[in-house]
Amino acid sequence: MKRKLDHGPDGRPFPSGKKHCKGNGYLSPSSLAQATPTTFGDLRLANGHSAQRRRVNSGPPPSGLQDWLLTFQTWSGPERLLALDELIDRCETSQVKHMMQVIEPQFQRDFISLLPKELALYVLTFLAPRDLLQAAQTCRYWRILAEDNLLWREKCREEGISDTVSYRRRDCVRPGASFSPWKSAYIRQHRIETNWRKGDTREPMVLKGHDDHVITCLQFSGDLIVSGSDDNTLKVWSAITGKCLRTLTGHTGGVWCSQMAGATVISGSTDRTLRVWDAESGECVHALYGHTSTVRCMHLHGN
Predict the structure, then answer these.
(1) Which CDD domains match (predicted)?
(2) What b/e sequence results for 39-60 when a residue is b if at least 16 CB atoms lie within 10 Å of its CB, and e otherwise?
């Protein structure tokens, strides 16, 4: 079942499978105001922690602690802040570290996971594609959201990418894992534009081997390149290293045309013959006679 794209208050579309958040999880503005934590203990309860956190096991509490706490509670907010500043200044490093370990986790909330999926997706529409890719590395649920196909369709619409070019699910995608054709289309278009604007500017690789003779034909298959020349030979090159792997000799005239399929090479020559070669071994498999003049063209179809 396809989900429709609703629009937010600013007119931006966002995925929506539900029109309203209903049920026990719905919070009205008044309930939000009432549920706002006022103390650190309230914050612990709001985050789902126990009201009684684990205490430091350092023996019985010091005398006068309760009186000191009662006095602290009678002070105003600014007075408490001043008292805390003075207290921190008098603490040792290990004690400040203990306070950080207790306090910091309480303010680290995964607000995206707490939102309904529709609202979480709407929040993610404001992120740039680069930020979406980083958000997908946060956790499994964030990855599911960041891979949403409609979310990436919106990003493609913003960039003027009109279709997914019939992307197929790749074999490397794990079964059950989310796959977004629109995300693949966006990344492909981004790579193309990046290559055009900031592509590799290395010097081209120059393959030399036919000396001063004319190169009359050239074919390639995979990492192999086969060139024919009027020096009566063909040469097999590595497209990775640029080195000449082997030379195919046997023609008594210049090579004028060639065809290649896999490791099989067929060449035509002014010696009125065609020859079938194994590019891997350099061996001439067949010599085909019959023409009474130069073989200038050919086409390979199956065998």
Answers:
(1) F-box_FBXW7
(2) eeeebbeeeeeeeeeeeeeeee
